[in-house]
Amino acid sequence: SYVLTQPPSVSVAPGKTARITCGGNNIGSKSVHWYQQKPGQAPVLVIYYDSDRPSGIPERFSGSNSGNTATLTISRVEAGDEADYYCQVWDSSSDHLVVFGGGTKLTVL
Amino acid sequence: QVQLVQSGAEVKKPGASVKVSCKASGYTFTSYGISWVRQAPGQGLEWMGWISAYNGNTNYAQKLQGRVTMTTDTSTSTAYMELRSLRSDDTAVYYCARMVVNSSGRYGVWFDPWGQGTLVTVSS
Fold this sequence. Notes:
The complex is a heterodimer.
Chain A: E1 9-12, E2 18-23, E3 33-37, E4 44-47, E5 61-66, E6 69-74, E7 83-90, E8 98-100, E9 104-108
Chain B: E1 3-6, E2 10-12, E3 18-25, E4 33-39, E5 46-52, E6 58-60, E7 68-73, E8 78-83, E9 92-102, E10 108-114, E11 118-122
Parallel strand pairs in B: 2-11
Antiparallel strand pairs in B: 1-3, 3-8, 4-5, 4-9, 5-6, 7-8, 9-10, 9-11
């Protein structure tokens, strides 16, 4: 089945840029979606279709996808961005049609 | 606004069943599917399956086949997930989420919004 690989943790200072990667075989051919989950809360969609932002999500959140890596970029990081982030794809060839990455804990120093 | 509201926490004994509800509002219920995703304590997200609210078609994750049933009641815009033969490793927060499908161009399926989650604890 299709596997998405994320780093377990990423740390960044306030005001800097955080980049969270999501690796998968030829992931550039799939559409990638990203969710933010704060402790004790449900996930929230922050990027869909590689780089589109839902209404209400700050422009500081952006995404890209090419080759074997998709990336979520958070510019001018704020303390409130500290959360777990998950990438997700749809893989029709997998017994798990929906695949999530293992998640990345973003820590704001 | 689009909203999914789930039923409350449950405590079950091993071998029992649990049925979680998810009431939708703010959109045409039959125009979207509903997926169920669970999260064990301290772990990541695990997709369980989905149901079309339009025609009731379902697709379940292979590891849960035979133990899970997803249904909908279009008269009340409510989706249900029943899990049987519960084990301790079924202890998790269970989420419903509206499925958004883009079939033009590169196919994509994503989830927005999510319900608030329902904690199911399986313990003797």
